[in-house]
Design brief:
Number of strands of chain A: 9
Shape of chain B: globular
Number of strands of chain B: 11
Helix content of chain B: under 10%
Order of helices and strands of chain B: EEEEEEEEEEE
Structural class of chain A: mainly beta
Radius of gyration of chain A: 13 Å
Distance between the termini of chain B: 39 Å
Largest sheet of chain A: 6 strands, mixed
Oligomer: heterodimer
Largest interface: A-B, 27 and 24 residues
Amino acid sequence: QSVLTQPPSVSGAPGQRVTISCTGSTSNIGAGYDVHWYQHLPGTAPKLLTFGNNNRPSGVPDRFSGSKSGTSASLAITGLQAEDEADYYCQSYDNNLNGSVFGTGTKVTVL
Amino acid sequence: QLQLQESGPGLVKPSETLSLTCTVSGGSISSSAYSWGWIRQPPGKGLEWIVNMYYDASTHYNPSLQSRVTISVDTSKNQFSLKVRSVTAADTAEYYCARLARTVDPYFDYWGQGILVTVSS
């Protein structure tokens, strides 16, 4: 049911850079709504990584950066570390649903 | 430090009502600066937004759940609650409460640890 599409998985070696895409439509990302990213480890609370396209909450390393263009957005993780192995979700607002929407989720594996 | 904690039964029978409460500590639920919401994650699946309740008491519900879901707030206890009526096995999920950092184009900046609710007879 998710209206934001992400790749199911991405992987990279320690130290490498990986990117996760988030594809939406003209009723959400393309309508100008911001994209926010979360990191989720099983059994824990999801953690806000970036908000408002590319702002980081206090304590989030600058290895994580977000960007947005048109109807899509991306999260880049540079200097990949073992602790980055988790599920990642994008989130935006959709004016057809009149509410929040999450991406399908991407599992990041550190090789 | 703001903390949110979900509570409620971990097992609900089909056709009954699922009731969960989120207790907020370290901040006031009545603040006009923030709003509150519920999100769930079925086993093996992604996050699904359920409902947002804004500081002015207005609400936005996921259209797929709107007919069965109600959110309410108890400011005296610094809590907000979720009810899902006529549950089926498809409502089995980890349920999270969260704070919305803004009302326009919102995002969730603080989350509870989650509570697993299983629908089964």
